[in-house]
Structure formats: structure tokens, C-alpha cells
UniProtKB/TrEMBL annotation:
Protein name: Prolyl oligopeptidase family protein
Residue ranges of every copy of the Peptidase S9 prolyl oligopeptidase catalytic domain listed in the record: 116-255
The keyword Plastid is assigned to this record: no
Keywords: Signal
Segments forming domain SGNH hydrolase-type esterase: 355-532
Signal peptide feature range: 1-25
Annotated organism of origin: Flavobacterium glycines
Database matches in SUPFAM superfamilies: alpha/beta-Hydrolases (SSF53474), SGNH hydrolase (SSF52266)
Length: 547
């Protein structure tokens, strides 16, 4: 088994010695700075079920009354549980359960570096979170980057808990190979591996192999319903510390074992030249040397990143994307959490472009509530009370009776259980900057008209107002300049008015601050994974109202 790994990995460095001829500083994703954690995250202590030692973790328990996913986020190679985690803001926005365990800290000692104690600690962290939160035990997900990617792969190969998905970003798969790769690059990781696997100054090859996910037994039956996602930036190994071959070899080994019953790469790789489910040696060499794929599918994207190679077999996926040694900011939006619910309400939605677009919040509601009847009368460019761009048909206040008459015709003899309004973004455009007092007055009048319309009298629906989401403050179209600041000033006034008229108010503005840019390429309209956050908040509110 060792021969093909060396021929693929080490052979690259013989053919292309430039990979070994420079020394690199720690990559950004191994930044061990300890940020000031938001007070919503609680520092907890978990006794090890293996040796009784206490492992610490940062933990967040969802405030929802319904079950939510559990995200187990694993720190990087040189970090520990206190390490800054870029996922935290979005965890709060989504209100998912979360735990960030220590699992024996930095990988520079024997107890760490995916030892049996580490595996036990990760399982203990899962059990602690399940016991102390509303986590759905069937919706547990492990995610990690770099050294956390190594731990994610090791968890996939070793833990007993039926985790739903594992997302490994820029992972190390083979500690023996990475020892020599790090030594050649003059990086500290070689010394760390030596400390963790050896009792003297001689590198313990066998111990490094025992700890390498690439070489461990594949628990196929245990993982038959679990998804494994391996993500790697094409430039890693050049601008980062882990060659992309770790990800590719791990993928090939697992798929090869599923398809051909062999865990040996020297038996799998010859088949790869004629098997499109695998990655061939020719493709590997091309990717490593070009750091590009001239034939990549321009329609195949990882949000805003080009994907140069994509493979999938069963529940195992590999994506090599435009990037380096990193986890992209939208990582949580890629995790396959449970997001459908059996609610059979009749719902009317009135919004602007975020409600009308193909992947908007209304589309997400329809996907997440497949048995609900949702009538959507949202329209791109719609305002609360202005003729946007001179178009009277976009003025909600001027046309609300017509809108609601149309909605009444669509529902027929049935009644609406909910009317959901999400307007205000277009009223904060630069063109209306000096008319913000009118915006407030228009909003008051619009909600009054909605509640007093014959449709509302007939249906007696529950009313929900969703605040406008934030918008980017820089690099947006000129017509939106200053819009975010105006939205922020309007929200308290909108909230007060809506609540006075018996609308439940959902503030999506503040939770989405700081993560909008992850999902909104234009700074205004989020991709579907971001719009899901709004839809989930609406569903949460619907459930609270109807209880």
C-alpha cells in the first residue's frame, strides 16, 4: 500500500522540486489566536470516558423549542478549544447547536494527533452536547479544516456515533507523507509529528501510519448512511501546507474499497485510468502542476469559487476548488442538515426581489414546508410606498388592495393562516434618502390596510413582519449607497409599528450582519443557503404562534 502513495506524492516532488524548495509561515487557517468568545458560547468541562481527564470546550445551546442540528467544529493543528472559530457568527444566526472541543489540544504530543484519546474525546463532546441541548441526535455533523480536517477524517474512520455528515477541509490524510513533506518545506509540523509519534529523535513510521486515516480500517457498514465531503483548494501545497494529494488519495482509497474491495492504492490506481468515479494519476499530476484545470465546467461552482475537479460516489464527495489552505466562509451552508417540516398552512407572502428570486426566502419556505400552500405576490423592486424607478406598479401602498384581491382570488374558498410581509430594502435606496420619514408613515398605513382588507377579515390570519436583511456598505451599486445605515435606523420604528398592529416581528437584519457577504455576491441578494436562514426564522415563528 505504501508504494503507490510514495510514487504519487513523493514522485511529484522529484519531478517538480519547486514544491520543496521554500519555507512557509503558518497558514492563516492554523492561526491559534484566541478571540474573545461571544458570551452566548459557554465554556464547559467534559470528563473523558476513557481516562477521566477533563476536556474543555466552547458550547452553544440553541434557544429554539424545536430540535436543531448539532455542529461539532474541530480546531486546527496548532490550536485548541479557545481558538477563534469563523463559524461562530453564523451558528448564532442559524441558532444551531454547537460544540468546539479541545480533543487534547495542539498536535504536538502523544495524547493528541488523532490518538485513541482524541477519538474518545470527540465522541464525549457529542454526547455532552446531545444531553445538554435540543440537538437532534440524527442531525449531528462534524466539520474541520487543516488539522481539524485530519481529525474529521479520523472521526469518520473511527468513531461509533452515527454522525450524519463529515466535512473535511484541506485535510491531512497520511501523517508519514506529511512528516516528510513538512520536513522538506522546513515547517514546524514535522517536529510536531515527531513529538507525537516517537519517544526519541527517530521518526516512528509505524505509529504515524497507525494514526493516518488513509491507512485505517474503513467502517463501511457504520458509515453507509453518512456523507463525507472532502474539500481542497487547488493551491494548497504551494501557498499552503498540505498538498492536494492527501484529499485525492483519501477519496480514491475509500471509493476504491467500496467499488473493488481493496484498500490498497497500488491496486486501486491502475483502475482509475478507466474509471471516472476515481481520480487518475494523470489528472492528479495535471492538477498539481497547473494548479488549474483548463477544461473545468464554468457552471459548476462552490458559491463564488470555480471547481476544477469534482467526484462523487455514493455518499463520498471530493471537490478541488479555486482556493488555498482554507475552509470557505460558506461552509455551514454546505452541510446537509434536516430542513423540511410537515406544516400544511395556507400562507401569503408579500415581498421584494429577495422574495421573488428563484433562490429567495419564499422559495426556501416552499422547499422547507413542501406541504404548505404558499401564494407569493413578491415583486423585484417593490417598495413600501414609492414609485420605484417611476413605476407605480411597484408601490405596495398604492396597490395593496389590488395585491390582496389577487391573493384572495388565488386562495378561492380557503383561508390564509398567515400573511408574511418583508419590505423596506428598496425604500432605503439613495433616491429616497431624504424621504425616510415618509417611509415610516407609509409603513404604518400599509400595515393598517393589510389588516383591514376584506381578505384579512375573512381569513383572520396571523401576521408576520420580517425586517429587511442588511446590505453591504461598500462595493454595491450606487443606488444602494447608504442604504444599510438607513435600514438600521428604520428597524426600531418598523418593529414598534408592526407590534402595535399585532404583527409578530422577525429581526433578520442583526443576525445576518457580518455573514451577509458570505452569501450575497452583489451585497444585496443572498444565495439560497443564506436565504434559508430567513426561511428557518419564519418557520420557527410560525410554530411558536400556532402552539
Amino acid at each position: 500500500m505504501r508504494k503507490p502513495i510514495k510514487s504519487i506524492l513523493i514522485g511529484f516532488f522529484i519531478i517538480f522540486p519547486m514544491l520543496n524548495l521554500f519555507s512557509q509561515a503558518d497558514p492563516v487557517w492554523d492561526d491559534t489566536s484566541k478571540n474573545s468568545w461571544n458570551t452566548a458560547f459557554q465554556k464547559v468541562e467534559i470528563p473523558s470516558s476513557l481516562d477521566g481527564k477533563t476536556q474543555k470546550a466552547y458550547f452553544y445551546s440553541s434557544k429554539s423549542k424545536t430540535k436543531k442540528p448539532l455542529i461539532v467544529s474541530l480546531h486546527t493543528w496548532s490550536g485548541d478549544y479557545t481558538q477563534k472559530d469563523p463559524l461562530c457568527n453564523e451558528i448564532l444566526a442559524r441558532d444551531w447547536n454547537y460544540i468546539h472541543p479541545d480533543f487534547r489540544g495542539a498536535n504536538n504530543k502523544s495524547d493528541a494527533m488523532v490518538s485513541p484519546k482524541v477519538i474518545s474525546d470527540i465522541e464525549d463532546a457529542i454526547q455532552y452536547a446531545l444531553k445538554n441541548s435540543n440537538s437532534d441526535p440524527e442531525d449531528v455533523h462534524i466539520v474541520g479544516v487543516s488539522g481539524g480536517g485530519l481529525a474529521t477524517l479520523a472521526a469518520y474512520m473511527n468513531i461509533k456515533y452515527p454522525v450524519k455528515s463529515f466535512s473535511a477541509w484541506a485535510p491531512i490524510a497520511d501523517l508519514e507523507s506529511w512528516y516528510w513533506e513538512s520536513k522538506g518545506r522546513k515547517q514546524k509540523y514535522a517536529a510536531d509529528i515527531l513529538k507525537a509519534t516517537s519517544t526519541d529523535t527517530v521518526f516512528n513510521t509505524e505509529e504515524a501510519r497507525r494514526r493516518s486515516p488513509l491507512l485505517q480500517a474503513f467502517p463501511k457498514d457504520l458509515r453507509k448512511d453518512a456523507k463525507l465531503y472532502i474539500y481542497e483548494g487547488i493551491h494548497d501545497g504551494y501557498t499552503g501546507s498540505v498538498p492536494i494529494t492527501h484529499s485525492i488519495n483519501m477519496y480514491n482509497r475509500l471509493v476504491g474499497e467500496l467499488k473493488y474491495g481493496s484498500a490498497k492504492l497500488d491496486e486501486i490506481m491502475p483502475k482509475a485510468s478507466n474509471d471516472s468515479d476515481l481520480v487518475s494519476e494523470k489528472e492528479i499530476i495535471s492538477l498539481v502542476t497547473k494548479q488549474y484545470n483548463p477544461a473545468f465546467d464554468k457552471k459548476n461552482k462552490l458559491f463564488d469559487r470555480n471547481i476544477y475537479l469534482s467526484r462523487e460516489f455514493g455518499n463520498i464527495q471530493l471537490k478541488i476548488f479555486e482556493g488555498g489552505h482554507e475552509q470557505i466562509p460558506q461552509a455551514l451552508g454546505l452541510i446537509p442538515v434536516k430542513n423540511t417540516i410537515n406544516l400544511k398552512y395556507n400562507i401569503l407572502t408579500l415581498g421584494d426581489s429577495n422574495g421573488e428570486i428563484k433562490a429567495g426566502w419564499v422559495a426556501q419556505l416552499k422547499k422547507m414546508m413542501p406541504n404548505a400552500n404558499i401564494v407569493n405576490i413578491s415583486k423585484s423592486g417593490r417598495t413600501i410606498g414609492f414609485d420605484n424607478g417611476g413605476r407605480k406598479d411597484l408601490n405596495a401602498l398604492a396597490n395593496i388592495d389590488d395585491y390582496l384581491n389577487e391573493a384572495n382570488a388565488k386562495i378561492g374558498n380557503k383561508k390564509y393562516d398567515f400573511i408574511i410581509v418583508c419590505l423596506g430594502t428598496n425604500d432605503t435606496k439613495k433616491d429616497f434618502a431624504d424621504k425616510q420619514k415618509e417611509v415610516v408613515a407609509n409603513f404604518d398605513t400599509l400595515l393598517s390596510k393589510i389588516t383591514q382588507h376584506p381578505l384579512s377579515k375573512k381569513s383572520k390570519p396571523k401576521f408576520i413582519y420580517v425586517t429587511p436583511p442588511p446590505m453591504r456598505t461598500k462595493n454595491v451599486l450606487e443606488k444602494y449607497n447608504g442604504g444599510n445605515e438607513r435600514i438600521e435606523q428604520l428597524i426600531p420604528q418598523f418593529t414598534s409599528i408592526a407590534q402595535a398592529k399585532k404583527f409578530a416581528v422577525i429581526d433578520v437584519y442583526h443576525p445576518l450582519l457580518g455573514i451577509l457577504d458570505y452569501y450575497a455576491e452583489d451585497g444585496i441578494h443572498m444565495a439560497g443557503s443564506g436565504q434559508e436562514i430567513i426561511a428557518a426564522d419564519i418557520i420557527e415563528t410560525i410554530q411558536k404562534i400556532k402552539k
